[in-house]
Amino acid sequence: MIKDKIIDIGKKLYLKNLTVATSGNISIKTEEGIYITASGTSLGNLREEDIVLTDLEGNEISQGKASSEKKLHVAIYKLRPEINAIIHTHPVYLTSFAACHKSLKEPIMSENILYFEDIPVAKYAMPSSDELVANTIKHIKKRDVVIMANHGAIALADNIEHAFSKIETAEYYAQVSIFSNIIGNPVSLPKKEVAKLIKLKNTKK
């Protein structure tokens, strides 16, 4: 069941152009441990054997080698106990912001405020490194989607479907931001309206 969910989300990420080749990884936390995609697998073409079960420290329980980014997943689950699913991938538009070391913070859509308020960018560090974990965790304390400089983006939620919605919405926000700047002079929502939206968001929690 858990593996089926991960396989399904992997296909959706691929069909939505939110992943390419063997980039990215997915995990779900359960009472058994963490189910995470294996190193070097294609999210769009996952098989059951491509999903590895680890304990809550990231040690493999089942056969296979867990994603090289497992340390980041483990750190997030420890920091945010309410989080049960993580998607890390390299969508074109979010990764373009990552390449430019630019956060997404312009309030040009009500949806981006209701979902994120803003999407910060974590300082660059080598993929799979302890430094990458440290740099990213700083932002994940308060945000559910973070861009990683020169890398990609990560989304987290209480379940895998919500994590998918967040990465999909974040990519849409990035695309609208790029296109509106190409058209020229995007109009931000007034601070008063932003405050109302943040209040609405906090009411729904």
Instruction: Write the element-wise H/E pattern from the N-terminal end onward.
Output: HEEEHEHHEHEEHH
How many domains make up the 3D coordinates? Answer: 1
Low-confidence parts? none
CATH topology description: L-fuculose-1-phosphate Aldolase
Main sheet summary: 7 strands, mixed
Number of helices: 7
Mean pLDDT score: 93
Count the E strands: 7
Percentage of residues in DSSP E strands: 5-15%
Structural class: alpha+beta
Summarize the structure in words.
- The protein has 205 residues and is α+β, with helices and mostly antiparallel strands.
- It has one domain (2-204): Class II aldolase/adducin N-terminal domain (L-fuculose-1-phosphate Aldolase, 3-Layer(aba) Sandwich).
- The chain is 42% helix and 15% strand.
- It is built from seven helices and seven strands, in the order H-E-E-E-H-E-H-H-E-H-E-E-H-H.
- It has a seven-stranded mixed sheet with strand order 3-2-1-4-7-6-5, sandwiched between helices.
- Helix 1 runs parallel beside helix 6, helix 2 runs parallel beside helix 5 (130-140) and helix 3 packs across helix 6.
- It is globular, with a radius of gyration of 17 Å.
- The mean pLDDT is 93.
